[in-house]
Specification:
- By secondary structure, this protein is α+β, with helices and mostly antiparallel strands.
- The protein is globular, with a radius of gyration of 15 Å.
- The protein has a single domain, classed as Glutaredoxin, CATH 3.40.30.
- It is built from 5 helices and 5 strands, in the order αβαβαβαββα.
């Protein structure tokens, strides 16, 4: 089965969100500053089309990318095809998802204990303790992703 992750145009929503910068696949065009500039909650999934959990998430990410345009930014980066993108964030395993609030700040789960038990990791700067990234390691289902995006203020 061919991996469904790829550049696609959504069929609904505002024309503003139909541009290439809202396509799901950010492989070879990954720019975190541009992704965070849209004032929308963001999920970026780092994976590969050869990874089993990544393949399982692929149709979910594609569906969310199309359904949530204008409400959230959903991106995928294949780190085997774009290794430089995987070096922008503290990537240890694939799949790993990074979450950012609409203002570009890292998402902070409401219940840290439950989040940590479910694969969420908070990354901070060693010297300052500043929170810089929130990631989830491993696959995620659609309902869990939607719950996180809603907690982040997705409308």
């Amino acid at each position: 089965m061919k991996n469904p992750i790829g550049k696609t145009a959504a069929t609904s929503g505002s024309g503003l969100y139909q541009t290439a910068e809202f396509d799901l696949d950010a492989t070879n065009s990954f720019d975190l500053d541009v992704i965070l500039s849209h004032n929308l909650p963001v999920i970026i999934d780092f994976g590969a089309d050869t990874c089993i959990p990544c393949k399982e998430m692929a149709p979910i990410l594609l569906e969310l990318n199309q359904e949530l345009r204008g409400r959230a930014v959903v991106k995928f980066v294949d780190v085997w095809k774009d290794s430089a993108a995987g070096q922008v964030v503290p990537l240890e395993v694939i799949p790993t998802q990074f979450f950012f609030n609409a203002d570009g700040s890292p998402y902070v789960p409401a219940d840290m204990e439950t989040a940590a038990a479910n694969g969420f990791i908070m990354y901070t700067m060693k010297d300052t303790g500043e929170h810089v990234y929130t990631a989830h390691q491993g696959g995620m289902d659609k309902d869990t992703i939607l719950a996180v995006l809603e907690e982040m203020g997705m409308k």
